Amino acid sequence: MLLTGTVVADAETVVDDGGVVVEGDRITAVGERADLAEAYPDHEHREFGIVAPGLVGGHVHSVQSLGRGIADDTELLDWLFESVLPMEAALDADGMAVAAQLGYLECLESGTTTVIDHLSVNHAERAIAAAGETGIRARLGKVLMDQRSPAALEEDATAALAESERLIERYHGAYDDRIRYAVTPRFAVSCTEECLRGARHLADRHDGVRIHTHASENRGEIETVEEDTGMRNLHWLDEVGLTGEDVVLAHCVWTDESERELLAETGTHVTHCPSSNMKLASGIAPIRDYVDRGINVALGNDGPPCNNTLDAFTEMRQASLLGKVDDLDPTALPATTVFEMATRNGARAAGFEKVGKLREGWKADVVGIDTDLTRATPIHDVCSHLVYAAHGDDVAFTMVDGRVRYDRGDFPHVDADAVRERAREHAAAIDGAPSQA
Q1: Quick one: which of 102, 247, 254, 362 could link to 354 by a disulfide (CB 3.0–4.6 Å)?
Q2: What's the pTM?
Q3: Which residue segment(s) compose the domain that 244 sits in?
């Protein structure tokens, strides 16, 4: 297939009248449209305003999709323990599967081709299978919680880690290596030392498995960890083995100088979730400082109950604007930096090689974006447009691993209407969740 338009190979590389050739699951060539059309005359040709790498959701909660809007305007720990965790606990296996499907379809139709997904304690296998079937690329895992949790979600650490290992053995590298596993403690507040240390030991036993957890999102969370351990949150995570280049920490809003040094020294990845941090009034993460220290920062939406969208274009805009306000400096977090956060930086955090740029030999994760729009007229700088003006609903075409997963309202491999109808039915059954039927 030959995809043509203004090609944004990465934040610094733009071909104004360009093309991308896809063969199998790989990009064969990137270059000028005329040259590629001549070299590949028999390839199916699709034309868009902009052709760009698929975006990476560096921290999402697909299985919270059925709870969009159930806990607005609420403080984080109340939001979590009074609304979101009870919702997760109420989902049966079918509900968990359809919630994940709904989240992945929202990602695909808005240009996100890869996610680092924080599932739930129960029925994680159904969500993993949903990722495989919808065609998204994902780093994901069963959630671990063995203290301070609702009864329906709290598990014995040994049993939970054993179940995680079973899922690793079955799904890590599945679906042509689109699905990779992350051991997923929810956060230090809901996990004992045994559970956290066990997560590290489990990841170490399996090549390529990562660790994904929340960290220092909220001051109340940090105070609880200090009361339990006598240590700052990130120092505690480091003590139990949850730092390093195979670890993704979501949020990291409230960190001191020593913790920032620790993140840089250990190569730990940070995912910035600006919309969620604003909506829950958690605070403003020191992202410019992280970037200046060489910390790899990805970009995430978090979950539908605290955002309330999985549109990564919205998150790019929020990240840049919030960074400028935080520093009172309009040069902070420019469009090129934020676009890298949402593409290659996210792929690095997820541990996917040759994902996040349009390059010969790289994976064919590509999106086509419409620009025949009033707010896309004119486009003086295409990266600026993608970060500050584009919306997820401008995405016309999404390809993952060389397969078309979304094409102008159609999901070729999934009955999206059926998924949405089942989602309404399951949402109506959750106490406090509104039905939109």
Answers
A1: 362
A2: 0.96
A3: 55-350
Nearest 10 degrees: CA dihedral of 233, 161, 427, 304?
30
Read off the pLDDT of residues 300-313 as tens digits, 9 standing for 90 and up.
999 999 999 999 99
Question: Is 420 a domain residue?
Answer: no
Q: What pLDDT is attached to residue 338?
A: 98
Give the range among 66-75, 101-110, 128-137, 322-331 with minimum mean pLDDT.
66-75
Cis preceding linkage at 150, omega within 30:
no
In this structure, what token pair is assigned to residue 157? Answer: 């650490």
Q: What is the DSSP string of 185-216?
A: E--GGG--HHHHHHHHHHHHTSTT-EEEEEES
Pairwise CA distance, residues 270 & 248, whole Å? 6
pLDDT at residue 428, rounded to an integer: 87
**Window from 234-248, 323-337, 419-433 with minimum mean pLDDT:** 419-433
Distance between terminal CA atoms of the chain?
39
CA distances from 91 to 66, 105, 425, 435 (A): 9, 19, 12, 15
Q: Residue 365: what are its φ and ψ, rounded to 5°? A: -105, 100
Q: Is 302 inside any structural domain? A: yes
- Which of helix, strand or coil describes residue 10? strand
d(CA 170, CA 163): 11
In this structure, are 288 and 157 located in the same domain? yes
Q: What is the pLDDT of residue 83?
A: 87
If asked whether residues 131 and 259 sit together in one domain, one would say yes
Which of 258, 130, 273 has the alpha carbon at shortest distance from 214? 273
* 210 and 284 belong to one structural domain: yes
The predicted-structure confidence for 173-211, as pLDDT tens digits, reads as follows 999 999 999 999 999 999 999 999 999 999 999 999 999
Map tokens 């399996």 to a residue.
206
- Mean pLDDT for all residues in the chain: 96
Compute the distance between CA of residue 220 and CA of residue 199 in angstroms, rounded to an integer.
24
Answer yes or no: are the C-beta atoms of 271 and 116 closer than 8 Å: yes
| CA–CA gap between residue 101 and residue 107 (Å, rounded) | 10
Domain end among 333, 350, 367: 350
